[in-house]
């Protein structure tokens, strides 16, 4: 009986050793805690990942607004790498609203409401113009009609500071008149729609908690 039991134990031990060696040859060995292996990727993979959708096609959120393969497309892709939730389409929508709000705030001389959306030098320039109008006794009555066209004119991204800049070319329509101290119209026509062309540049630190873009430059 004892010999039979010993023989069974030896057979079971042999099977256990065989299974252990078999598993070791397949799985390998690990020491301590190890993270699962991550495939290496090229430095440009992050940009490519955001420029292409999963199926491998171009990112419509980018090429709907700039030419595919252009420098602007690459910059916008880099912005998406820094902030994956960033949407070019949503930015354009926000720029539309910001243009109306800032333009009308400036025309009416109400800079307090728009100050948080202006860079310091832009605010100071606007304030000088408004102060000069007030000194001369001039007031502007304006009504915003709408934006006829809006498109991206350029984009830049600093990977060190993570600051992104996007310039938009805008054609807006509004009516405006300038009145003197006595209330007489000295410039403009209340019924004539004026078409205004502007190129505005907005900037923001990508990935920052503050979602607001600031107007940092204006031009035609």
User: What structural class do the secondary elements suggest?
Assistant: alpha+beta
Shape: elongated
Task: Specify the number of helices.
Answer: 6
Order of helices and strands: HHHHHHEEEEE
Give the CA-CA distance, first to last residue: 103 Å
CATH-level-2 architecture of the domain at 83-219 = Roll
CATH class of the domain at 83-219: Alpha Beta
Fraction of residues in helices?
Answer: 25-40%
Low-confidence stretches: 9-13, 15-55
Number of strands: 5
What value does the Rg take, in angstroms?
A: 32 Å
The overall average pLDDT, rounded, is 82
User: β content, as a range?
Assistant: 25-35%
**What summary fits the major beta sheet?**
5 strands, antiparallel
Task: Indicate the CATH topology of the domain at 83-219.
Answer: Nuclear Transport Factor 2, Chain: A
Write the layout of secondary structure elements.
Blueprint: H1 2-27, H2 45-51, H3 60-63, H4 71-82, H5 88-107, H6 120-136, E1 139-158, E2 163-179, E3 185-188, E4 194-205, E5 214-219
Helix pairs in contact: 2-4
